[in-house]
Amino acid sequence: MSERLEDIAAAMVANGKGLLAADESSGTIKKRFDVIGVESTADSRRDYREMMFRASDAMTKYISGVILYDETIHQRAADGTPLVDIIKASGAIPGIKVDAGAKPLAGFPGDTITEGLDGLRERLTDYYKLGARFAKWRAVIDIDVAKGVPSATSIGSNAHALARYAALCQEAGIVPIVEPEVLMDGAHGIDTCYEISKATLTKLYTELYAARVVLEGTILKPNMVLAGKKSGKVSSPEEVAEKTIKLFRETVPAAIGGIAFLSGGQSDEEATANLNAINAIGPHPWKLTFSYGRALQAAPQKAWGGKAANVAAAQAAFAHRAHMNHLAALGQWQPTLEQAA
Ligand code: 13P
Prior knowledge:
48% of the residues lie in helices and 14% in strands. It has 341 residues and is of the alpha/beta class.
């Protein structure tokens, strides 16, 4: 594979393939395992992820890359093969989450700032040697309008951190996924999501330009424009598609390598239907695909339940979701394909 940043970025969003976000921190994966009654240990986390990376049908046809957590990029499969080698053998690109998480922003209750810039240059060099060719940094923007959240300071600080991270990645030969996630957890309506996402993306690209980041060698990982969960409203795929594309046309340069959405708490099928509606109203200046965590893994987690006997069923559940999202990335998904499974 070519090592030019723009080629890596293009491969990440090519041919209706998308990313598997398997980079849950040890705290987050424990929460997921609690739901299925599995104890979270280094071995159970390894077994679970090995199950997905060895799902060759899903991996070879639908997955362009996998975002890993620090523990996983160092782990070996039960037979001693590095997990990174299993991913590469499927044709997918290994990636790595490099931020250290969102922490409370001093002076701004309710806002967070993502940390992890200290020592990042050295960590990126190590991850490159381990095989990572792209990285992820997630900024978190919550919405609580009555409390003045998010503040302009939070949007600005997070955009600045994303730009410093992206410049360091490119210096190391690694494609940065820039993820400014506007959360869908609040009680806001879809138009508030649009406004806050617009302010966030505008600031993000201002900072990326200022940091001399080469846009062709970046991938944007955005939220879709949606009503908040506590609003009691579910936006239709057509409305999500129309407002999300309007937002991107106004704020996201055509030059970037591509767009890979987070699922953010949408149900599996909602995340697929919305991605499909977005692509169905194309053509667009960018490829728009998936970089889903929960919306790809909820079904295989449930099918697996920590039992070796369930590995084949879990791999089939993963392959089905990956296939549905692959079709959505091409604008070719139909609800009837879900029932057929
Ligand atoms: P979700 O798809 O579960 O939102 O996770 C994607 C991700 O990587 C968030 O950083």
